[in-house]
Amino acid sequence: MLDITPVQERYGTSPLDKKKEHQEFLDNQCIALQERYFDNRETGHEHDVHIVCDASVPKLPLQAVSGWFIHQGGTKLERDWVTAGLATSDDAELTAVSMDIISAAEKLGEDFNLASNIHIYSNSISALNRATDCSAHSGQTWSVTLMEVIGL
């Protein structure tokens, strides 16, 4: 059920000091990811769901933020975020992983069950491992909810 592939891709660096060039860089990276991973209509996996999630934990007293976006069949379905409160980075990432699955299930309804694969892209292997671990840990509520949503 869980296949973690530790593949790391680099797409260059953005010129942060120049706003227009920075936005063009981000737009080009989004197009590259869309073409490489999310547009799978020609492969016969048009029902596959692709989810990208990330979290940010700033210094106190600010709250952690968990964000995600969801693609299916080359179409962006949702881009959203929630505050994760005063959380560790692993808990904030787990919040993002769980919330994106919950959102995908709500958005897609019965089509969610047609997905042969759900691909989750995250930079936290710990959060991905804990997402399917319903034993006692600080993010257990998110793990249990995620398992209920996917029917396990």
Could you characterize the architecture of this molecule?
This protein has five helices and four strands. The protein has 152 residues and is an alpha+beta fold. It has a single domain (43-150), classed as Nucleotidyltransferase, domain 5. The chain has a four-stranded mixed sheet with strand order 3-2-1-4, covered by helices on one side. The N and C termini lie close together (10 Å).
Question: What tags apply to this protein structure?
Answer:
single chain; 152 residues; alpha+beta; Nucleotidyltransferase, domain 5; 4-stranded mixed β-sheet; 5 helices; 4 strands; 21% strand
The total beta strand count reads 4
Provide the structure class: alpha+beta
Largest sheet: 4 strands, mixed
Averaged pLDDT? 80
Strand order of the largest sheet: 3-2-1-4
Q: Count of helical segments?
A: 5
Computed over alpha carbons, the radius of gyration is: 16 Å
Count of structural domains: 1
Shape: flat
Query: Could you say what the CATH topology is called?
Result: Nucleotidyltransferase, domain 5
| The named CATH superfamily | Ribonuclease H-like superfamily/Ribonuclease H
CATH architecture group name: 2-Layer Sandwich
Order of helices and strands: HEEEHHEHH
Ranges with pLDDT <50 over ≥5 residues? none
Strand-residue fraction? Answer: 15-25%
CATH class: Alpha Beta
State the end-to-end CA separation: 10 Å
Helix percentage:
40-55%
